[in-house]
Design goal:
Layout: H1 10-32, H2 38-45, H3 48-60, H4 70-73, H5 80-92, H6 111-124, H7 140-160, H8 165-192, H9 197-217
């Protein structure tokens, strides 16, 4: 989405590129957290997803330095079957539910209230969760997809020379009220469960990215 808008400035062009990069990073986190299959495993093992993540973070100009050991851990994932077994153990099974649920409302507080708040965010932008896929509004995949959408719309607004403020403020509020209210707790649970290096590294990277987002979005 290169800028050809007459009102564009070097500053707005740079902001647009950063917004595109951030949108890409959210999409990559969403991809990495799908249920593992051969395609995902190959993308990870080949280094394709890792290199796209590195590039996205660099273009977004994040102010934190990912721990170097995380990158090999995001590539050396073993077989798709091993990764799927670990995904199931952490996120899908358990006598009283999975030990590390991917639902915001299962990490303390009133889940119904958490879901209702998320739905209000989605509905404000004319979005609904898919009944076909039975997505729930507090699931991490749904929340990452929403941030992917908001950052892309921010980039579109900047490209058109229109007001990106509504998308930025929505990002600020959603990261603060939703994602950052429970991802740190999920990281702690993953460590308690001795999750494999892939998921530990992935969520440490996600946590640092969201913390940086929160700092950056305070300006709006």
């Amino acid at each position: 989405m290169s800028t050809n808008n007459e009102s564009a400035t070097p500053e707005s062009d740079a902001e647009e590129k950063r917004a595109i990069a951030r949108s890409s990073v959210y999409g990559l986190f969403q991809d990495a957290l799908t249920y593992p299959d051969d395609e995902l495993r190959e993308s990870l093992a080949s280094g394709e997803l890792v290199e796209l993540m590195r590039k996205g973070l660099a273009l977004a100009e994040v102010d934190f330095t990912p721990v170097e050991e995380w990158w090999p851990a995001l590539r050396e994932v073993g077989s798709a079957e091993d990764l799927a077994v670990e995904y199931t153990r952490l996120f899908d099974t358990g006598a009283s539910g999975p030990p590390c649920p991917l639902y915001a409302g299962l990490h303390g507080g009133d889940r119904l209230k958490k879901m209702e708040e998320a739905v209000r965010f989605y509905n404000h932008f004319g979005l609904t969760t898919s009944e076909q896929q039975r997505e729930l509004p507090d699931h991490l995949q749904t929340q990452l997809e929403f941030m992917h959408y908001l950052t892309y719309r921010e980039a579109e607004a900047l490209h058109a020379g229109s007001d990106a403020g509504p998308y930025r403020r929505a990002q600020r509020d959603f990261v603060g009220r939703q994602l950052n209210s429970w991802i740190p707790k999920l990281r702690e649970r993953l460590e308690e469960q001795k999750a494999n290096d892939f998921f530990l590294s992935l969520f440490k990277l996600l946590g640092d990215f969201l913390a940086w987002e929160a700092r950056r979005l305070k300006a709006y």
